[in-house]
Amino acid sequence: MYFDEIVKDVFQEINSLEGRGEVASYIPELRKVDPEKFGVYLSTIDNSGFGIGDCYEAFSIQSIAKVLSLSLAYRMLGEKIWERLGVEPSGTAFNSLVQLEVENGIPRNPFINAGALVISDILLTKLDHPKEDFLAFIRSLSNNSKIDYSPRIATSEKNVGYRNVALCNLIKSFGNIENEPADVLDFYFNLCSLEVNCQELSNLFLFLANDGCTLSGRRVLGQSQAKRVKALMQTCGFYDESGEFSFKVGLPGKSGVGGGIVAVHPKQYAIAVWSPRLNHKGNSYKGMKFLEEFTTKSQLSIF
Ligand code: DON
């Protein structure tokens, strides 16, 4: 696989950079992560893979899980989902409240926290056993029954999740949350706490590279739905840094405050990077740098 050499070269180059930024500290358990961890794994749709560094060590995927919760809700609800939330970049931080007040509790997109809370509410209504059924969906995507929530991280965030509590209550006040805010928040904190390693994360996202089908041929999303989820990753996956990621990397992607980033090249590959030091927008500093160099050297961006 010719990607191997490029991944290795770029990994070494970025690994030697001085570690800039800080590990997320607002979720107490995330503070304990070693800031110098760095791993990359690339999985292709012809079923090969290559990993380097700390790519087999599990980490908290946080907001990256929002793509998977959107996928399941979209699969269940179809286009009606867009009656509850928008598809525009917010240009604001991931946990901002400002637009909700003037936009009647309709979050701009499914990847800001407000949007992910509405998606959580939809899943809570639609699924018989929300936490178990969502986990079963995730496990089925990668054929991996070991993936799990981290109760330790979910509880840690729950104890200090005042902004998410505020967001959820504000949306509820506009009638765009059906369930009890405490239940929606509990589900949301759990999905953010999912722990996977880079290899598992890139495998989980292969269905998006593969037009909505797993490599075993099971359809997860329609082709047009998969296109739309990737379009949202492209325009909204990095909050108020989405333009910058698009400009420098040129792939649909999604970040999480655990320091993970996953990006997808349609019909080619999914790549996961983990480096916990975050820039001031809450996205992995080395993760962004790695992917910028990788798409430049491989000449494989969507643009
Ligand atoms: O709700 C939160 O603040 C976290 N559970 C997730 C935020 C996050 O990952 C933002 N992404 N970069």
UniProtKB/TrEMBL annotation:
E.C. number: 3.5.1.2
Family assignment from sequence similarity: Belongs to the glutaminase family.
Protein name in the entry: Glutaminase
Subunit structure: Homotetramer.
Main EC class the enzyme belongs to: hydrolase
Name of the encoding gene: glsA
Gene Ontology molecular functions: glutaminase activity
Binding-site positions, substrate: 63, 113, 157, 164, 188, 239, 257
Reactions catalysed: L-glutamine + H2O = L-glutamate + NH4(+)
Keyword list, A-Z: Acetylation, Hydrolase
GO biological process entries: glutamate biosynthetic process; L-glutamine catabolic process
Keyword set includes Thylakoid: no
Organism domain of life: Bacteria
InterPro entries: Beta-lactam/transpept-like (IPR012338), Glutaminase (IPR015868)
